[in-house]
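sorry for the late reply, my laptop died twice this morning and i had to redo everyting from scratch. anyway the thing you sent over, i finally got around to it. pasting the sequence first so we're on the same page, its 312 residues, then the predicted structure underneath. double check i copied it right bc i was rushing
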Amino acid sequence: MTAALLLSGVLGAGLWLIVMGQPIGRPRPDLALALQRLSAQGRGALGYDAAHAPMFSSPLLERTLRPLLDDAGNLLGRVLRRAGIEAGNLEARLALAMPEMTAEQFRGQQLATGAITAGAFPLMNLLGVQPAGAWPVWIWLAGFALGFAAPSWQLHARLRRRRLAVLAETPVALDLFVLAASAGLSPEQALVEAGRQLDGVLGDGLREVVREAGLGTLGYAAGLDGLAVREDVPELRSLADAWRLAREQGMPLAPAMLALAESARDRQRSRLLEEGGKAAVRMLFPIVVFIFPVFLVVLLYPAGVQLLGIGR
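ok and here's the structure:
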């Protein structure tokens, strides 16, 4: 009886933590603060970063679990850096895909999801949920590994979707530069107009470059270079170089952007063909495992029945 009550309490607490940790119902930030964070000057005055953003809607969880996750993530980060096995700049990747989360919070989330996944198997052993016998310890460890890796997979998927969006928007941005330059606009005016007309991730990046240059914190050329480095897209690096040459050396902007647009579309077509070839290979597995056996049964069963009838 005591074990049943204890397990019920643990399950209820876990369900409560999951529900309260969802984004639905979290306190929304103040509109004035949100508008102030749109400019670099406002962000500097506020000193706001993801470390001050609430993780839970419940103040109790924010006071109790938030420090534990931050401390555990900080400790894990130090261990990984000391061991030399942490790859890439986690802070830069989080700033692109999950700006509301710091590196310590991300590592704490990894530990939490790993512990919850691993703890589900001994809990099922206690509850008697054992379809094929008791869950062994190696299954617990595998569950922890999967839970620990799940946030990294989510981060990688978001970064990949972001990069694909930037790659798809780059030819359109180059066409906008061509149209603006052909209309007689200067390189700065072409950049402003392209950022104004373009939507999506790249449009936000171009508008951020214009905003930073207008505030005097970063020049246009340096802003485009930073955008190219941050998004890690070769076409953006070529765009930044062509824009700098047009501004500093007076070279015509429209022909260079037109050539870059054609090159970007050629690369995009090559990537689509490559992805199509990979998709064809990936389709072989479900065809061989699920479709081909059924197809053989449908064909061979009538023939087998007829053969057996003839043999009789």
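Residues 243 and 249 are 10 Å apart (CA to CA).
thats about all i looked at so far, will dig more tmrw
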